[in-house]
Amino acid sequence: MKVTLKDGSSKEYASSMSIYDIALDISEGLARVACAGEVDGEVKDLRTTITTDCTLNILTAQDPEGLKVLRHTCSHVMAEAVKRLRPNAKVTIGPAIDEGFYYDFDTEPFSREDLDAIEAEMKKIIKEGNRLERFELPREEAIKFMEDKDEPFKVELIKDLPEDSVISFYSQGEGFTDLCAGPHLMNTKGIKAFKLTSSSMAYWRGDSNKARLQRIYGSAFSNKEDLQAYLDHLEDIKMRDHNKLGRDMKLFTTVDVIGQGLPLFTPKGTKMIMKLQRWMEDLEDKEWGYVRTRTPLMAKSDLYKISGHWDHYKEGMFVLNEDNEDKETMALRPMTCPFQYYVYMNEQHSYRDLPYRMAETSTLFRNEDSGEMHGLTRVRQFTITEAHIILTPEQAEEELTRCVDLCNYVMKTLGIDGDVTYRLSKWDPNNKEKYLGDDEYWDSTQGFLRNVMIKNNITFTEADNEAAFYGPKIDIQAKNVYGKEDTMVTIQLDCAAAEKFGMYYIDENGNKATPWIIHRTSMGCYERTLAWLIEHYAGKFPTWLCPEQVRVLPISDKYIDYANKIAKELKACDVDVTVDARSEKIGFKIREARLDKLPYMLVVGEKEEADGTVSVRSRFAGDEGVKPLGEFVDQIVKEIKTKEIREEIPQDAAK
RNA sequence: GCUUCCGUGGCCCAGUCGGUAGGGCAACUGAUUCGUAAUCAGUAGGUCAGGGGUUCGAUCCCCCUCGGGAGCUCCA
């Protein structure tokens, strides 16, 4: 009989064989076999004997899907190991995730030593080489099965399954059987390389009111090389982590007595943010038709009562004088919306004035829970490129497209457009108290944003319960080096606020009409963007963003005057330049400039001074060599002006 | 906010089975005036995150607070 694989290859077998044995044969042993059992598109028991020509679908760990199966199986093996070491631990769920897998247990916390012991036990289990067998039970028997094993979480899971669903189990040898939809490896031996990376607390079903569980994270691969590469990758990531690198590079710091989530920007970090800010303000005002406002950082609580923040967002605000009857209750602003609304209402607007685009470099305060803060990506005070656009409903589609275009331009210029994904952030119809408005409002506004993205050929995902309380959002998401996702840019549609605040415009017929409002950022939050840039470039920023763009290195004290003359000329062209006038050897100065990740070093000595030249060293390809000063100045001024992103020469960090 | 791990000079780390602390790099001073990734010598710098407790005595043991990491929940 002839067995054909999904990839088109085929093999002849003389006699009948089980799927299990065929899979074993064609995939170089269990290491490569992730799962099997699909014959001609129909899922079969692995023990099914094949007697005629057929197409067999065998997943291998080379497929992303197969790797996922391998990791999921590894989570079962881990669960068995934990049950062996802690018979009283209750099992819950253990899925494969992006870079590995986890399993949650109801038990005492795990230490690193516990994880090592579990790893050792897992190796034993893998060595035993038990086959994973699937079987099904009717609903009542399934519940009883797990009740007998005293696994309350599994019982709850089964009870939540639809009445008519197939309830499947997988056993691996005598020791362990788990409720699971599958699929799995055929045999635990297929796990050739794994590592338990960390443990932490997690809530049952992600609900902070439910049981606290202990989660173990790990990863698994089909071979040791891949595992080692992954572990090396984890090390590499640490070098890019903005929270480490940003502090090392002296871009920002934090101080215990100042508080959590309140970073201090040092001169270098401040310089970078100012470069970003000046660019954004000029861009929005000069090229995209925005007017700029400057509004208070706090307001009476009355304002937030009108906006709805007092009801929906009070926990997130810093409230002042609430317990002091003699003083007005105030709050630091968590957003700029109502402030800019009052700017709009300061004068009457015709439909001819719309869209009216108000931008503000806006500092906001949000009272995040203490565990939420992280580096520059989650802070309690931050500054965003905020704007509110007041427009007629007919203008909304075009204006939303303009907002998306601006964001794309900004991200492209920063060189990070490849890092982002789009998300339509929707409300949660099952959680209505969290949101303003009714089904109709949300269906129509969400539909509107969806259409804008479709019309603009944007690939996007949709997510429930991610909207602002007043309207849906187009969120542009990016992942940090650890894979954790943050919103970088947000564009929100709000068809309700204008009415609440009594905003209007005069339409073609001279009547008052209620506008729509777009809340949007263009580059997002400066703190978060800086973090993102640090991680994306590993600290080697494009020249225009660097706090120090050029360092002049005189060979000896004799050439300091010439170095200063060069610096003066560059400064006159708005280049950030310093002179390393220390009495150090040139090799030492170069080393330090390299470690500081400077784009350009200009070495100057007797020859350069005599010829009016500079000896250029840089991070970029094709820049080495002696050239007239004027030529270098022209080059770098152009590079800064165009915000050029140049190709780095690969550097051996250890050198 | 919750679970867990952690907190020794600017940075990386030793160390004390409880007798108030060291090394490397950085900094500072002096010498050196040098041609593309580390010149030499010297000096200074820590109430061992902060507070409380146990003890004759705490950086070390216990408790609390603050701060940092990972994760959960939440969010730009």
Task: Note down, in words, how this protein is organized.
With 655 residues, the protein is an alpha+beta fold. The strands form 9 sheets. An 8-stranded mixed beta sheet has the order 18-22-23-30-27-26-24-25. A 5-stranded mixed beta sheet has the order 2-1-7-4-5, sandwiched between helices. Strands 8, 9, 10, 14 and 15 form a 5-stranded antiparallel beta sheet that branches. 36% of the residues are buried. The structure holds one RNA strand of 76 nucleotides.
Identify the CATH homologous superfamily of the largest domain: Bira Bifunctional Protein, Domain 2
User: Main β-sheet: number of strands, strand sense, barrel status?
Assistant: 8 strands, mixed
What Rg do the Cα atoms give? 31 Å
Main sheet: which strands, in order across?
18-22-23-30-27-26-24-25
Q: What is the CATH third-level topology name of the largest domain?
A: BirA Bifunctional Protein, domain 2
Extended strand count: 35
Q: Regarding CATH, which class of the largest domain?
A: Alpha Beta
Number of separate helices: 19
Q: What is the name of the CATH architecture of the largest domain? A: 2-Layer Sandwich
Would you tell me the overall average pLDDT?
85
Percent range for helical residues?
Answer: 25-40%
Unreliable stretches (pLDDT < 50, length at least 5) are: 28-36
Structural category is alpha+beta
Overall body shape: globular
Number of domains: 4
First-to-last CA distance: 60 Å
* Beta-strand residue percentage: 25-35%
